[in-house]
Amino acid sequence: MTGRIHIDLFTTLDGVAQAPGGPDEDPEGGFAFGGWQAPLIDAAVGTQVIEGIRDMDALLLGRRTYDIFASYWPHQLDGPDNEIARVFDAIPKYVASRSALKLGWRDSHLLGPDLGAELAALRERHRSIHLIGSVEFARSLVAEGLFDQLNLWVYPVVVGAGKRLFPDAGPPTTLRLLEPPAPSEKGAVLLRYGPAGGAPATGDMTTAE
């Protein structure tokens, strides 16, 4: 079996993926718009998210996102979001961190320092591995080409400064659109991309060719 690694991110139109869920999610850098996604939630995005949740059989998380998830989802097993909570609780969770952690959430595992080798091993054990949020971890996967599909929900809001999947420093990369996007009721667009390989090509639009 060779599993696929998905990156699932919510971003603003100007590319900010920091703290979509709530004011206290990630205030690092003085980020003032935590919870920017909340007023734009709609049924179409909810359906897309649930489809992804039902598909996964392993979860990848960065340290900060793991702490947020572990403090919330285990307590929602009988709540209104219990389908998501039960999937997250049942599947293995793999955490990237530069320091040792005490992982109290059931079936949680710390990844070793060789990310490429760790993900290769996960592909042999799992069919559909999803990295949710964890923008800095996602940045590493994109930079090293260690993903199969980028699921990017882009919302019609601009917030300015914040953490982005694609920082100004790069690295340059190319992607290919996997399917036509369709907007949700409140204007969010799900863009599904796969890696195309290599740096962007350039040309000269002033020539006859």
Written overview of the protein:
The chain has 209 residues and is α/β, with parallel strands linked by helices. It has a single domain (4-195), classed as Dihydrofolate Reductase, subunit A. The protein contains 5 helices and 8 strands. It has helices spanning 43-55, 63-72, 82-90, 115-125, 135-143, and strands spanning 4-12, 58-62, 93-96, 108-110, 128-132, 149-155, 175-177, 189-195. The chain has an 8-stranded mixed beta sheet, sandwiched between helices. The mean pLDDT is 92. It holds the Pfam family RibD_C. One of its GO terms (molecular function) is 5-amino-6-(5-phosphoribosylamino)uracil reductase activity.
Topology record:
Layout: E1 4-12, H1 43-55, E2 58-62, H2 63-72, H3 82-90, E3 93-96, E4 108-110, H4 115-125, E5 128-132, H5 135-143, E6 149-155, E7 175-177, E8 189-195
Parallel strand pairs: 1-5, 1-6, 2-3, 2-5, 3-4
Antiparallel strand pairs: 6-8, 7-8
Mean pLDDT: 92
- Global structural class: alpha/beta
CATH architecture descriptor text: 3-Layer(aba) Sandwich
CATH superfamily annotation: Dihydrofolate Reductase, subunit A
Termini distance? Answer: 45 Å
Order of helices and strands: EHEHHEEHEHEEE
Pick out the low-confidence regions.
none
CATH topology name: Dihydrofolate Reductase, subunit A
Helix-residue proportion:
10-25%
Largest sheet: 8 strands, mixed
Any idea what the radius of gyration is? Answer: 18 Å
**Number of helices, where a helix is a run of at least 4 consecutive DSSP H or I residues:** 5
